[in-house]
UniProtKB/TrEMBL annotation:
InterPro entries: F-box_dom. Residues 54-113 form the F-box domain. This is F-box domain-containing protein. Pfam families: F-box-like.
Length: 471
């Protein structure tokens, strides 16, 4: 109450009020002491708890930390410091974990930087962070990807200069920058004894007058991913490469690269463009896997130019507009096809060209392909020469027209019973359109009891139609 309006008390009333306040203060202090005492007991109980994770030997905790990192061996275009962030988070849990994290070089040798250097302050902080990670990585093999959003070589030089002295420890490396920026790494020539995987992407499409020779001598290099780069742009130890991923090239440039790589085992082809002048290349005797990651007619035009006597794994997307010749191989074992906008009869004709060595097939049907599914099951039932060696078949129906029931239990039962006699052991059909409950079918139940794996499942939600195969 404001002193100006508070009623005036007598001396006796003031002393009585003082005694009341003193009693309330005493009670409050007693309650506070009780709460503080209880809190201290709780804290003592917490301190007495021994967390099992903190009793692990440092070596075990270190190994667990290393397992938490996404070390896939592939270097993707970065959008953030995701790999580095995992290492930083481990050091924020407690003091012990921070000490362990800082002492493990393997936590700091996987760096994924996407830098936009437009100011000296940003450039300085980026270089400091890179140098800090490199010092913690010590001499352990480095896996790093650097995506620099600058066109000026002067802006990239300090960052590249920070990485260059460690080139003898580079194992999996990727650079997405300009040609001039890569030339700033001239000091790494013949200094790549550990390099196994290389990814190069250019932001400037101009072909240099002289090719980049920085990676010409790398005795362990076998995996290369080229984006907008071809044999006239970069000199590599082509003959020792076993895995090649190319994209944003012309088909003619791709054939030029393939002419230099006779020992390829795996080939991944991304977006190709421009027409092609066909010519035949020598056989690739070691090539066992080809993956087309985009739906594009020009990409498939290279197939008639090549011979793959040992090709075992093929993954591609098909549409009505694709004209793919019969493969020159008799060893194909696995086939994955993403079908989009494709005529059913044409697609059956294409499958009929597959060699009898085919054992495993996955056929992703995009929107509106109930007709193709029925044709496929019909051919599998009625024609024993159609994919005769098939042992495993998976059919995800990504988007199906609701008005067309894709299959009935009787159709499935007849197909499975026929194909079981020909060697089919695994069958999966997954769709978001209602499918029959095959557990109620006597024939299918007998096949399952006989050891055949059968999965017919209706998804609650439709698959997303990504427009390209998820390889």
């Amino acid at each position: 109450m404001s002193p100006s309006i508070r009623p005036r008390l007598t001396n006796q009333e003031l002393r009585a009020r003082e005694r009341v306040l003193d009693a309330e203060i005493a009670r409050a202090r007693a309650y506070l002491d009780q709460v503080l005492s209880e809190r201290e007991m709780v804290q003592n109980d917490l301190d007495a708890i021994i967390y099992p994770v903190l009793t692990l030997p440092v070596e075990v905790t270190s190994q667990i930390f290393c397992w938490t990192l996404a070390k896939t061996g592939r270097i993707a275009f970065p959008h953030n410091l995701s790999l580095l962030g995992q290492s930083l988070h481990l050091g924020q849990i407690c003091r012990l974990w921070r000490q362990i994290a800082l002492s493990i070089p393997q936590l700091w040798n996987h760096m994924d930087f996407s830098l936009n250097v437009h100011s000296n302050n940003r450039q300085t902080s980026s270089v400091f962070l890179i140098l800090t990670c490199l010092s913690r990585a010590a001499s352990s093999p480095l896996s790093l990807f650097l995506h620099v959003h600058i066109g000026d070589i002067k802006g990239a030089e300090p960052i590249l200069d920070a990485f260059a002295p460690y080139s003898k420890t580079w194992e999996n490396i990727g650079f997405c920058t300009s040609l001039n920026s890569l030339r700033a790494l001239s000091g790494i020539y013949k200094q790549l004894p550990r390099l196994k995987s290389l990814k190069l992407g250019l932001r400037d499409p101009n072909t240099p007058k002289t090719p980049i020779t920085l990676f010409e001598e790398a005795p362990l290099l076998q995996t290369v991913h080229l984006i907008q780069l071809h044999s006239q742009t970069v000199t590599l130890p082509w003959s020792q490469l076993t895995v090649l991923h190319v994209e944003l090239l012309t088909a003619e440039e791709l054939l030029g690269v393939l002419g230099l790589t006779p020992n390829l085992v795996s080939l991944v082809i991304g977006f190709l463009y421009d027409a092609i002048n066909l010519w035949n290349l020598p056989p690739h005797p070691h090539l066992q896997s080809i993956v087309f990651t985009k739906t594009r007619l020009d990409a498939y035009l290279i197939l008639p130019c090549l011979t793959f006597p040992r090709l075992r794994d093929l993954k591609l997307a098909l549409s009505d507009h694709d004209n793919i010749a019969q493969l020159s191989t008799h060893a194909l074992d696995r086939l994955s096809i993403y079908v989009t906008d494709c005529d059913g009869a044409w697609f059956m004709q294409y499958l009929a060209t597959m060699p009898p060595s085919l054992r495993t097939a996955k056929i992703d049907l995009s929107c509106g392909h109930a007709v193709i599914l029925r044709l496929l099951l019909s051919h599998l039932t009625d024609d024993p020469t159609f994919l005769p060696g098939l042992e495993s078949l998976a059919i995800p129906v990504l988007r199906q027209n609701q008005e067309h029931a894709p299959v009935t239990a009787r159709v499935l039962s007849n197909m499975l019973r026929t194909r079981r006699a020909l060697g089919l052991r695994n069958f999966e059909l997954v769709s978001f359109v209602s499918l029959p409950d095959t557990r109620l079918d006597t024939q299918i139940t007998k096949l399952v009891a006989d050891g055949m794996h059968i999965r017919v499942e209706t998804q609650a939600e439709p698959y997303s139609d990504f427009g390209c195969p998820e390889f």
